[in-house]
């Protein structure tokens, strides 16, 4: 379990989700078809959804075309993310690619096969976006695990996510520039907000390759990890968010996005931040304050911040370890 950092977390994850780690950690674009078939038990499903605790993993599953997304796959990805948003048991999502790459962008073979311009225009004008729900804000935190190629529309998908974990040999870039394919899934909107207009224009206009080191330096990604560790570390990051009270998480996240993209002024952003505080949110805050008064969380420790039910096997293991 090279993707994991702690012994107990590794034991827990190994008991429940070896399948998604075996797929997600296969990051070499040159992986053979046989290797991909062995690691992928659902070769016909373009989108695979798996759930572990309060984390939902959404995998793009078209490894033969480096997970390029056609219109059908885009609609299925939108549906999978909407289902994750509506699931009361799911707090954080992880978006990843299966079989070596995250996503190589829009499947240009579909565009090339369109005989009438109006047909292609109908694909472009899909309400939520071509690549997925890229033309709206996702209602819950979403972490992207970047492996292999994350280019063109695939990079726009990664920008749709809140946080990005990139393997050190992965490749970013708007390679669509080479073929005259425009950015239509939010890349021109989100990228300047993340890294600044000047740097964004450099990447948008040149279509050049961006390495993991540069991506981290300019704030395009949040973590760079070893080859094979992308999905595991993205899951770790999702867990580090999911362990906290979620009403507060969503309030602060929404306020940050509103202030960045929607507010007409600094004052309006501040007003919205305060106006969206609800009775339920204050009750959650009161419960946290009561824990603090009891001594939980002081001195920088986060133990006990959020209670969770332990499965029987983990309770037995902890009991056994306490006797050693």
Automatic annotation (TrEMBL):
CDD domains: crotonase-like (cd06558). It comes from the Eukaryota. It holds the Pfam family ECH_1. Belongs to the enoyl-CoA hydratase/isomerase family. NCBIfam families: PRK08259.1 (NF006108). This is Enoyl-CoA hydratase.
